[in-house]
């Protein structure tokens, strides 16, 4: 049974969801505020976290930031709950490392579908072979969701490690935007959606430049992204 931590101050909503989610094969824990949620995430292992943006006191974005900077939950998938129509919340959440979002009010069936989709993508990102991979001067630890570049270790979110894995599996070849959207976010690329570009930007900052000073990840206009080794044209 997969374990979910729901961080939301709406006790009535949790009461309605818990029976439904348990019938769907999930085990649920509840935290009504940020500090309780962070404490529970540190004390127990969860397969996924459902996080409301509008929490009393410390908001959901700050909770997400702390989760992504922690050693125990930096790679745990996070689905954020936002007010319907608040696109800025969705954009900020994705920029900070959320894996998906869902607007309130929502149908419990849609929540279950999104939870399962996020968990499938997270599972698909697990390496089948070597846990640690060396690509020139960077060392990628797939199991620990971390990368060492320029002598510094950086923790990666689930989406970041999946993106990096797809790119280094196809070094020198363009990986299409549509493929990356479907494999990382679970939906096709939409013309106005910049989620992938923001994800690439975050990953670039963590990787830094190549040993020869060139960029590691190049955007190919209208097509996708390509990972380049030293000496390859950027």
TrEMBL record:
It comes from the Bacteria. The modification 4-aspartylphosphate is found at residue 52. Residues 130-229 form the OmpR/PhoB-type domain. One of its GO terms (biological process) is regulation of DNA-templated transcription. Keywords: Cytoplasm, DNA-binding, Phosphoprotein, Transcription, Transcription regulation, Two-component regulatory system. Residues 130-229 bind DNA. GO terms for cellular component: cytosol; protein-DNA complex. The lineage of its organism: Bacteria, Deltaproteobacteria, environmental samples. Residues 3-119 form the Response regulatory domain. It is found in: Cytoplasm. GO terms for molecular function: phosphorelay response regulator activity; transcription cis-regulatory region binding. Its main location: cytoplasm. This is DNA-binding response regulator in two-component regulatory system with CpxA. The keyword Transcription applies. PANTHER family: REGULATOR OF RPOS, TRANSCRIPTIONAL REGULATORY PROTEIN CPXR.
